[in-house]
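Subject: for your reference before the review

Hello V.,

The reviewers asked for a structural picture of the protein, and I figured it would be easier to keep everything in one thread rather than splitting it across files. Below is the amino acid sequence we used in the manuscript, unchanged from the supplementary table.
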Amino acid sequence: MVSLTNPSEVHAQDPAIPAPKNGPFSRFERMIALRYLRARRRETFISVIAGFSFLGIMLGVATLIVVMAVMNGFRAELLDKILGINGHLVLQAVDTPFDDYRDVQTRVTGVDGVEIAIPFVEGQALASGANASNGVVVRGLTQTDLLSLPALGQSLRSGTIDGFGEPTGEPADTIIIGSRLAAQLGVTVGDNVTIVTPRGSVTPFGVTPRIKAYQVQAIFEIGMSEYDLVFVFMPLAEAQAYFNMGERVSGVDVYVEDPDRIGEMRAEIEAAAERPLFSVDWRQRNLTFFSALEVERNVMFLILTMIVLVAALNVVSGMIMLVKDKGRDIAILRTMGASRNAIMRVFIMTGASIGLVGTVCGFILGTIICLNAENIRQFVSAMTRTELFSPELYYLSRLPADMDPTETTAILLIALALSLIATLYPAWRAAKLDPVEALRYE
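And here is what came back from the structure prediction:
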C-alpha cells in the first residue's frame, strides 16, 4: 500500500499526481482554480453568484472612477474659471486713496513668481436691455489688461476687444458682456445697454442715480454661467468717471505662476507694494465653496467604496458555496497528498481571479466613460429630453472629467485588496476540511 503521508513519494510512484510547487502557485493549483471558475451544468447557481460578484466589482470600480474623475474635473474647471477672472491675490488700499496704483503695479510685477498685476475699478449696477434687466458687476480694465486675463482673452464669442477704450485714456462708451447676460437682455454686438448705478452725481437734493447707455462691443463666454451672466467689462477711464473714482482704483489683482504658493508669496508681494494695503487671496475668498467641494468629494469616495465592499461580500458567499459543493473533491485531493496550503491557494486564486478581472474591466469601463463624459451627457439629455448638469445649478456649461493617476491607482488597489481579503475565509474553510468526514458517506 502506498503511504499518503509524503507527497513526494506519491508523485514518485504515480506520475499523474503533480509534484509539489516550486513557485507561488504551481501549475496544478492554477489548473484546479481555472476548472473551478468554469461552471458545469449542475453548478449553474454558483456560476451565477460568481457572475454577479464580477459585475458588482466591475460596476463599483467604474462608478468610483467616474464619480471621482467628475468631481476632480468639476473642481479644476471651477478653479480655472474663478481664477481666470479674479486675481490670485487682491490688493486694496488702506487709510489713503489708491491713486498710486501704477507704481504699486510696477513694483509688484517685479516680484519673482508674479506674472501680471492688473488695476481695476469695480462696482455694482443694473443693466437694462430690450427685454429685461439684471444686476451686474461692472469692472473697469484697460484693453491691455483685459487681453492678459487668462480666461477672457480667448473666450470671445462675437465682436472684438481691439479699440476697447481710447488710446489717449479718455472715457469711451463701450462695454463687453457675457453671453448669458446678452441672451437675457436680448442684445447683441452693436446694441445699446443701459447701465444704472445709485452712485451718481451729488446735488443739493442728494445723490441721484447715474444712468448711461453703452454700446456692446463684444460678447464673451467663459463657460461659467455665473460669470457669463453677471460680469460687465468697461474701459478703466470710463469706469473711473462713471463711479466717481477720479484717479483712484478699487484694487489691484495679482496673478502668480503657481496659485497654490500664494500663501508663501503673500508677504513678499505686500512688502513690494511699499504702502498700507489689505490683501485677500483666492483661498480666503472661496474658502466655504472649495471646502464644501472637498468634503463632498471625500464623502462620495467613502460611500461608493461601499459598492465594491458589497461586491466583495458576494465573492465570500459564492466561494463558501463553492467550498461546500467541492467538499468531496477537496477530500480526494487531500488524500492524494495535497497540503492544506495548496488547497487554500487554489481557492484564494479562484476568488481573487474574479476580483482581478472585475477590477480590470471596471477600470476599462470607467476610463471609456470619463473620456466620453460630455458626449454621454448630451446623448442622455437628447434621449430623455431633459437638461442634465444644468449650468444654472452647476455653474459650468459642460460635464468635466479629470482622472487623477494617483487616485485611480488607489481605487484599483482598494478593489483588489477587498477582493483578496474576501477570499481568505472561504479558502481557510476549504483548507480545514477533514477528508475523513467529507468521504464518510461517499
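For the response letter, the relevant points are probably these. The first helix runs from residue 7 to 13. The first strand starts at residue 89 and ends at 93.

Happy to draft the paragraph if you're swamped.

O.
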